Amino acid sequence: MTGSAPTASIDGWVKHPFTGGGLTYDCYEKGSGPGVVLIPEIPGITPEVLALAEHLVDNGFTVVVPSPFGTPGRASSLGYTLGIVTRLCVASEFRAFATDARRPITAYLRAVAADLNARTPGSGVGVVGMCFTGGFALTAAVDDSVVAAVASQPSVPFPVGARRTADPGMSGAEFDRLAERASAGDVCAIGLRFSEDVAASASRFRTLKARLGDAFEVIQLDSSPGNPGGFAKSAHAVLTDEVRDDPPNEAFAARDRVAAFLRERLSA
């Protein structure tokens, strides 16, 4: 696969601190229309994450990007990423290795979503999480303000051992509530992954699909050897690093599907 992923800058985004669930982080906001909370992937609000945020703004959403880790606008590098991973592994608000766990960061994200819902049009808000934060989007959907959740390559808890690999990334009580809302039609979700991605394991997706049923749409992109899209076996970031727009590839199409899904749910 040739070319590079779309990028954007932090310019034009309005920064404001937000406190919720006993935590305070800066949030970056832009756009108008129904609300979408975009939770950045490791190492933070990179130019690629900002390109996704701008894509959502262009699709008619008010987008809020919390910044719980990393330096907003800073490009990813190996050293920068490893430093963030090291911090996140021991941070109590994320509980990166815990199974059946309620994570303090998700209370914060639910508060962000509820606040955004209170001041934007639509039937509720959407939440998009990626990689380390992929599952946090689903856990945020425990809150009634969230009607659409997107979990792109959800990777927490880190897949060390079979139990963590299959864990849904939330506590049993949260999973029960999410399944209850999904069964009632109050929330729908999309999960995205590459077929060979061990971080966002197929077993985790099976766990989620078994409980959420038709309310959980799975988009799996082929990254097996010789795949027609030219994706490397190590392909991971469906909505950011792997997107190509000239010509459009399957990750580009997946990104468009996410925007369409959010429009459908938030205008219902």
**How would you state the average pLDDT, rounded?**
96
Return the CATH class. Alpha Beta
The largest beta-sheet arranges its strands as 1-2-4-3-5-6-7-8
Fraction of residues in helix: 25-40%
Strand tally, please?
Answer: 8
CATH homologous superfamily descriptor: Alpha/Beta hydrolase fold, catalytic domain
Largest sheet: 8 strands, mixed
Question: What is shown here, in short?
Answer:
The protein is an alpha/beta fold. It is 34% helix and 19% strand.
Explain what the structure shows.
The protein has one domain (14-266): Rossmann fold, CATH 3.40.50.1820. It is an alpha/beta fold. The chain has an eight-stranded mixed beta sheet with strand order 1-2-4-3-5-6-7-8, with helices on both faces. Strand 1 (14-20) and strand 2 form a beta hairpin. The chain is globular, with a radius of gyration of 17 Å. Helix 3 crosses helix 4 (134-140). The model has no long low-confidence stretch (mean pLDDT 96). Helices cover 34% and strands 19% of the residues. Pfam families: DLH. It comes from Orlajensenia flava. One of its GO terms (molecular function) is hydrolase activity. This is Dienelactone hydrolase.
Q: Which descriptors would you attach to this protein?
A:
268 residues; Rossmann fold; 8 helices; Dienelactone_hydrolase-like; hydrolase activity
Q: Could you give the topology of this structure?
A:
Blueprint: E1 14-20, E2 23-31, E3 35-38, H1 47-58, E4 62-67, H2 78-90, H3 104-118, E5 125-130, H4 134-140, E6 146-152, H5 162-166, H6 172-183, E7 188-194, H7 202-212, E8 216-221, H8 250-266
Helix pairs in contact: 3-4
